[in-house]
Write a structure and sequence with these properties.
The chain is mainly alpha-helical. It has helices spanning 10-22, 25-33, 37-48, 51-83, 127-137, 160-172, and strands at residues 91-92, 97-98, 109-114, 120-124, 148-149, 152-153. The chain has 2 domains: 4-83; 84-143, no CATH class. The chain has 6 helices and 6 strands.
């Protein structure tokens, strides 16, 4: 694995970090050096040709992809927890009261406040919203209607007579 300390100059590391944010070599070099765009454009071009810089950029991008994948996994896990909780886990139906608050999964509590009488009021996360977000993630709901034919637009050709007839028919309704 390629490490920062293997770079010849710490400025290359900063350049690599900035480049991975925007994928614009000139802008990355401007942030690193503070020089003009013309000078930085040429410097960025030559810097991007360096094998050690390319390796470091690839490492940063791969790490970012791994972090993004981990973040997606964690979000889906949290949504799953919120979408599929069972109210009986923390409410005792036989006694008609909440179980000990310490037994409640904190991820399911949206708001919690202590009342004047020493009891607690809790508001749970919105289960329906969590289910909706999970459904969207899984592609179960479509926000847009696809009116294409295998990715190609549908072309409709009408004569002026057909357009007039369609307008007249709509007006009659």
């Amino acid at each position: 694995m390629y490490h920062e300390k293997e770079l010849l100059n710490p400025r290359y590391e900063l350049f690599c970090q900035e480049y991975c944010k925007t994928f614009n070599g000139t802008q990355a070099m401007i942030k690193v050096s503070g020089k003009s765009a013309r000078t930085c454009g040429r410097a960025a071009n030559s810097t991007l040709k360096r094998a050690d810089v390319r390796r470091r950029i690839d490492e940063i991008l791969n790490r970012n992809i791994e972090q993004y994948d981990e973040l997606k996994r964690r979000i889906v896990n949290e949504l799953t927890t919120c979408a599929f909780y069972d109210f009986n886990e923390f409410y005792d139906l036989t006694k008609m009261e909440l179980k000990d608050i310490a037994e409640i999964d904190g991820r399911l509590i949206h708001k919690c406040k202590k009342n004047r009488d020493g009891t607690y009021s809790i508001e749970l996360v919105d289960k329906l919203k969590s289910l909706e977000l999970m459904g969207k993630h899984l592609g179960m709901f479509q926000d847009k209607l696809d009116v294409t034919s295998n990715g190609a637009p549908i072309n409709v050709t009408l004569s002026s007579k057909e357009v007039s007839e369609a307008i007249d028919a709509a007006a009659d309704e």
